[in-house]
Fold each of these.
Amino acid sequence: MFYANAGVCPVIGRNFKAVFYDIFHEGIANFFITSGRLLVQPMNLITKDGYGEVFASNVLGHYIMVSFLFFSFLSFFLLLSLKKKINQ
């Protein structure tokens, strides 16, 4: 199963019963976008700085993902505009 997430988090198990409930009550599209409640995570994990462990990793992960996507799209559109100018 694939779903996009820029961060990392500790996982101690999977909850397939909640998956079926989410699919039938919230829809299959929502499940594939958010992964529903498939992953079971431990509660109250705090870093030495006092932040939640998942929050701390997601901030950096989202920054890296957005930076990568920005430069990928930028180079793609620059290439398209260059190709358009050459063909004119």
Amino acid sequence: MAWKYLQFDDRFLANHWTLIHGEIVRPLDGEVIPHAWLAGENKVYDAVLDKTFEASDYVARYRAVVISRCSRLEAAHAAAKHGHSGPWAD
């Protein structure tokens, strides 16, 4: 879902946002889960929550850990190569 926002949502086309694949701690049960979000200048957009956070607040609240990050162009190429919106192995 985050990939689609990065590629097609006007709010993220004008700025330097990156796609992050990582892990967060789910607040409901404390389980660590794979997740994707967008990162901009000191901001995080979580497409599942449809909410923008200060980056430090997001990391503290969800204990977010970055596994990989890519630009809009890198994400578009990876999605085309693999046939899905991620995460990608290479």
Amino acid sequence: MIDKHCEFCGRPFVALRQTAKYCGDVCRVKAQKRRKAKKMVAQPKRKCAVCGKDFRPKTEASRLCSKACGMRETHAKMRAAKEAERHIQQLRHRALTRRTGEAVSP
């Protein structure tokens, strides 16, 4: 057991591991929330890639303002993929029709 001071509240505590930083779960969670809040303040506002609304991202990689915009983007990608597949099938059908010289059912 190791005598340490909590990095959040400064109180002394007995640690079971050398890597312990906090006296308990309460201080650990509060420290985590403080770190997260600092990250959020550090992020400049961005425009959502889907709706164009200004928002403050939670991470550096955030591109969308909400789950709803995430769903809209996903559905749009799915529609685009289906349309691309349909277009490829039409091109194949046209090529087969030209080769055989007769109408072929799709």
Amino acid sequence: MNLKTSSIKWIPLIFFLTGAGCRTSDSFNFGAYSEAENFYEKGEYARAAAKYEEYLRENPGGNMAVISRYYMAKSYEGMGQADRAREIYEKIVKEAPELIWATFSRERLEELKT
């Protein structure tokens, strides 16, 4: 066995010992966004929309901003507020046309026409 091969075998152990294997669910918590997801999954759309809005106020350019807008619109749909949902989908399409969330938004806009 050469030195290179034996060194590679230690990489998983090194990651584990440095904490890569010790993540908790708290390390994946995104504050208001995570709370919104939980409410959305339970069908509590009013509470979900409020939390998505909170996330956007706190992180207007955050990594999850477009996703928050998309699910906020879906929450409004769930509450029967199609006009409000439509406004948000249109904003996503206008502001981030290259993202997959714009594609999803276009699909929702088409569905709302029927």
